[in-house]
């Protein structure tokens, strides 16, 4: 029986321990099995605690199983893969079941965590399937360094090199991230270690928190097969609102670039160009897993494939995942060996470029309503007899801003692929009942290839006259190993001691080779080979960074009568990135204390858990390689001298972190709540500044700065057993983060520019916050009226350093609801953000071209209202205020939004394929609609995972709604 739901567990496994003899429970939860008096029966069910019973003289054995997620004494996986009782933890964690990742699948499984974990912000790039996502816990902490959480798979830090990201306004591609390679059907659970204290044992890699992933493994019992199939369709949710009433000015056969012409009196063939261009996207995911085994050996095998057709024609993505895992229990369970191997291959074409260059959306959006879009779709190229080749065909003269979108898709085509092998082995030797030695080895090898062929007559400066050939290869390899001695014993039923000491190493190597004809041009047009590059057929750029991190660490937990626990950890790292300095070795400790008040003070049985906790830690944040002693590099076939001064006084960033909070569980675990307040100060920030001319270098690095994040996280859940067959579980989470730049070095002058473009500046200033954005704005009088220049134009500020807003929302909210009635289930997830600013540069550019609905409305109304009852000509107003480096303060919108993030309605056909062989069918949806939104763009989609350019829409893909069907069969 499911004790909490008071329902029979249909298909529960009943196994005679140490054998492969067993059975499964029927529709009423009943079973029958021949067993001897000395046999031990194991009762198990996915998501429930396993229970054992000695048969003895009994002929009827009834058992109640409890949900693992509700178990007060449940064991959770913590840093370094160590298992600890949940109630003993001195810091906050939050667990997520593997089913949360597969309910409504996303090609990047990390996006399925949106709205489900307090303090976790997942922001996907607007680049489509296979794109990267930014994973942020408790705010940005490093100005130039890494801010993303560390992902650990089965105790091993995961290599996550990003091939490229957009870092400026014109162009950039999203090379994807390694996390998007994982198969969600292989995931058993996740445990999010939110603070530096929780992740201290991982050292500098984990200063931004850790997402612990535990993958599935084989189980004792008969072979079990699971098959799942998911189909998701994708339509545009949020696109620019374009007008169809005013066209471009026609001169001969040419149309003007912008749409400030007369009102269209007849047909407007270009009005519906968005519906003609975008298609319904579709993603198909199929997965099969096989597992089973005996007491001595258990196996797990899985295969999955994903095929995704994006909303942009020719944008396709394919991935295959194969995983095998075998576990052995040897020498009377004294030696446990676990080995796994995964192979991933993926390929894709025309993943969306951000920015204005190389982007089909710029030409699509600015195309005039009175132009024949369908003609240019069918005739994106025409034969040029003078050059004896097909040339780009477009409604207006070519410039550096926009091209025929179908030329971009077909004659500037990109292809990319990845092959990845991940192999792991773990051995655990039991010395005594309380002492064991464990060792792990892992290798992660990935190879990426990127190819772009740009044909002759593409817009300059995108390409020279004969075309352009780009070929990049990136190979990354990470070796990781650790060895630990673990001690766990209870003395006199009073003192609990859990202690571990160990050592680890990690060696990371990346080899990047890039070939780009660029300004050299091709000798023969449209011949894409290295030998056809003018001047130097081996015009390569080579980059070969390598980094090593060696560590020793230790942790000890002391518990007293199950009432009070104290945690102490220490770790020392030796980083090759700090070579040639006196700080190559650095130590950081943590300490935590928790007290179970319900154990210390007699309380009603209604109170299952009342815990208070607190912790403090100092954790380093490592720096990139070659800052302390910069190297020469090979650029376009030439040796490039180093322009940065060596930084022999370099220190690692040091994060001082504290948190305290409480956990409450009531009414037989029906009600759960936790609250945490935290504060982190990241000191020794490193910055690059200009060098004096006499130094011989262009720039040098300094340690300076103190970035502070403080806030709280709260989550609560309750399970309502409304009837014997109807239940409702509701989960709510909320977080608040306030970032402050406490101090910057005076040598940094007016602050630090993290990135800039199109008139926006992402700057750090003392007293400000990470994510502050500066630019130009309209000048208004005290009554809000727009000031006018002598020429009759709106007045803009002379300075581009006016504060326009901060791209980070301080409040995050999530509310999940799970209803079950008999074999029906309904899941609804709402989430939202409060505060922050999003910048819609797409809207700004399109207003300048006169193609948006707001510009048409202004013309219909006789002009733009500028105050004092006056109106200004719409073209004069928007060409002055909108576009590159104009009044971008007018395009800053509130990022506050609430939406229906995820929905699932399903039914389980029990025993459809035999006893305990079920079929689950569900209708699912993601990102279905906004409940509230102020901005014209989706504030939760970003241009890049770069430290700048968050919260900006610059011709990124429109956000989409997804809906489809899930099938899952168990054999």
UniProtKB/TrEMBL annotation:
It is found in: Cell outer membrane. Keywords: Cell outer membrane, Membrane, Receptor, Transmembrane, Transport. The keyword Glycosyltransferase does not apply. Residues 87-210 form the TonB-dependent receptor plug domain. Coiled coil: none annotated. Gene3D superfamilies: TonB-dependent receptor, beta-barrel domain, TonB-dependent receptor, plug domain. The keyword Membrane applies. It is a multi-pass membrane protein. GO terms for cellular component: cell outer membrane. Its main location: membrane. It holds the Pfam family Plug. NCBIfam families: OMP_RagA_SusC, SusC_RagA_signa. This is TonB-dependent receptor SusC. It comes from termite gut metagenome.
């Amino acid at each position: 029986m499911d004790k909490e739901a008071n329902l029979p567990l249909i298909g529960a496994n009943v196994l005679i321990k140490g054998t492969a003899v067993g059975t499964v429970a029927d529709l009423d939860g009943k079973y029958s099995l021949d067993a001897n008096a000395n046999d031990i029966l194991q009762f198990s069910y996915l998501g429930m605690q396993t229970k054992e019973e000695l048969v003895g003289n009994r002929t009827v054995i009834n058992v109640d199983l409890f949900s693992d997620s509700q178990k007060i004494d449940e064991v959770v996986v913590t840093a370094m893969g160590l298992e600890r009782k949940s109630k003993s933890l001195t810091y906050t964690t939050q667990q997520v079941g593997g089913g949360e990742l597969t309910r409504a699948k996303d090609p990047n499984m990390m996006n399925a965590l949106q709205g489900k974990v307090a303090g976790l912000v997942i922001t996907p790039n607007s680049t489509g399937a296979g794109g990267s996502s930014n994973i942020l816990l408790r705010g940005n902490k490093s100005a130039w360094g890494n801010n993303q959480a560390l992902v650990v798979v089965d105790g091993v830090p995961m290599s996550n090199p990003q091939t490229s990201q957009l870092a400026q306004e014109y162009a950039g591609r999203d090379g994807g991230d390694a996390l998007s390679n994982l198969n969600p059907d292989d995931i058993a659970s996740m445990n999010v270690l939110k603070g530096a204290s929780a992740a201290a044992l991982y050292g500098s890699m984990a200063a931004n928190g850790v997402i612990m992933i535990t993958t599935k493994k084989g189980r004792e019992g008969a072979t079990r097969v699971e098959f799942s199939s998911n189909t998701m369709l994708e339509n545009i949710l949020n696109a620019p609102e374009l007008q169809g009433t005013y066209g471009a000015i026609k001169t001969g056969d040419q149309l003007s670039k912008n749409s400030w012409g007369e009102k269209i009196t007849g047909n407007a063939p270009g009005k519906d160009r968005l519906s003609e261009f975008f298609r319904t996207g579709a993603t198909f995911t199929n997965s099969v897993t096989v597992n089973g085994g005996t007491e001595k050996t258990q196996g797990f095998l899985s295969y999955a494939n994903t095929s995704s057709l994006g909303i942009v024609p020719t944008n396709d993505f394919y991935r295959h995942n194969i995983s095998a895992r075998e576990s052995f229990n040897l020498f009377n369970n004294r030696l446990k060996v676990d080995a796994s191997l995964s192979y991933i291959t993926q390929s894709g074409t025309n993943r969306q470029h951000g920015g204005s260059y190389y982007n089909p959306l710029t030409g699509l959006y600015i195309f005039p309503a009175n132009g024949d879009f369908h003609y240019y779709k069918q005739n994106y190229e025409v034969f040029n007899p003078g050059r004896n080749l097909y040339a780009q065909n477009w409604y207006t003269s070519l410039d550096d801003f926009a091209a025929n979108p179908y030329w971009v898709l077909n004659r500037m085509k990109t292809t990319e692929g990845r092959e990845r092998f991940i192999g792991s082995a773990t051995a655990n030797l039991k010395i005594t009942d309380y002492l064991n030695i464990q060792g792990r080895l892992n290798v992660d090898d990935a190879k990426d290839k990127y190819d772009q062929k740009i044909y002759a007559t593409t817009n300059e400066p995108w390409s020279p006259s004969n075309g352009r050939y780009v070929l990049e290869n990136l190979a990354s390899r990470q070796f990781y190993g650790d060895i630990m001695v673990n001690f766990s014993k209870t003395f006199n039923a009073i003192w609990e001691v859990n202690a571990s000491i160990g050592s680890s190493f990690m060696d990371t190597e990346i080899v990047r080779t890039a070939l780009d004809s660029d300004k050299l041009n091709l000798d023969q047009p449209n011949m894409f080979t290295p030998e056809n590059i003018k001047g130097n057929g081996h015009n390569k750029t080579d980059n070969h960074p390598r980094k090593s991190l060696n560590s020793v660490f230790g942790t000890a937990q002391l518990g007293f009568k199950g009432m009070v626990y104290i945690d102490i950890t220490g770790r020392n790292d030796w980083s090759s990135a700090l070579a040639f300095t006196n700080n190559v070795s650095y130590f950081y400790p943590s300490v935590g204390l928790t007290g179970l008040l319900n154990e210390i003070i007699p309380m009603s049985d209604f109170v299952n858990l009342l815990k208070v906790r607190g912790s403090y830690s100092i954790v380093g944040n490592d720096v990139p390689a070659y800052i302390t002693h910069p190297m020469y590099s090979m650029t376009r076939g030439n040796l490039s001298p180093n322009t940065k001064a060596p930084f022999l006084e370099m220190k690692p960033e040091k994060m001082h972190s504290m948190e305290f909070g409480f956990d409450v569980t009531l009414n037989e675990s029906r009600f759960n709540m936790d609250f945490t307040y935290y504060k982190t100060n990241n000191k020794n920030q490193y910055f690059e500044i200009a060098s004096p001319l006499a130094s011989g270098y262009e720039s040098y690095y300094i340690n300076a700065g103190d970035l502070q994040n403080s806030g709280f996280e709260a989550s609560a859940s309750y399970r309502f057993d409304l009837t014997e067959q109807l239940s409702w579980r509701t989960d709510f989470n909320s977080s608040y983060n306030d970032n402050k730049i406490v101090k910057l070095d005076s040598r940094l002058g007016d602050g630090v520019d993290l990135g800039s473009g199109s008139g926006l500046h992402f700057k750090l200033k003392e007293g400000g916050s990470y994510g502050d954005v500066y630019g130009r704005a309209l000048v208004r009088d005290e009554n809000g009226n727009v000031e006018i220049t002598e020429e009759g134009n709106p007045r803009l500020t002379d300075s581009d350093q006016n504060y326009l807003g901060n791209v980070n929302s301080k409040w995050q909210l999530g509310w999940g609801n799970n209803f079950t009635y008999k074999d029906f289930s309904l899941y609804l997830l709402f989430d939202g953000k409060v505060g922050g600013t999003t910048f819609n540069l797409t809207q700004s550019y399109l207003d300048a071209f006169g193609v948006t609905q707001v510009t048409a409305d202004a013309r219909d109304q006789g002009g733009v209202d500028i105050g004092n009852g006056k109106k200004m000509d719409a073209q004069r107003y928007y060409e002055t205020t909108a576009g590159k480096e104009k009044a971008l303060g007018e395009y800053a919108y509130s990022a506050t939004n609430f939406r229906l993030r995820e929905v699932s309605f399903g039914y389980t056909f029990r025993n459809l394929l035999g006893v305990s062989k079920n079929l689950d069918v569900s209708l699912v949806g993601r990102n279905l609609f906004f409940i509230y939104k102020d901005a014209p763009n989706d504030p939760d989609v970003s241009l890049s995972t770069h430290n700048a350019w968050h919260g900006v829409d610059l011709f990124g893909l429109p956000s989409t709604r997804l809906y489809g069907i899930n099938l899952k069969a168990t054999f």
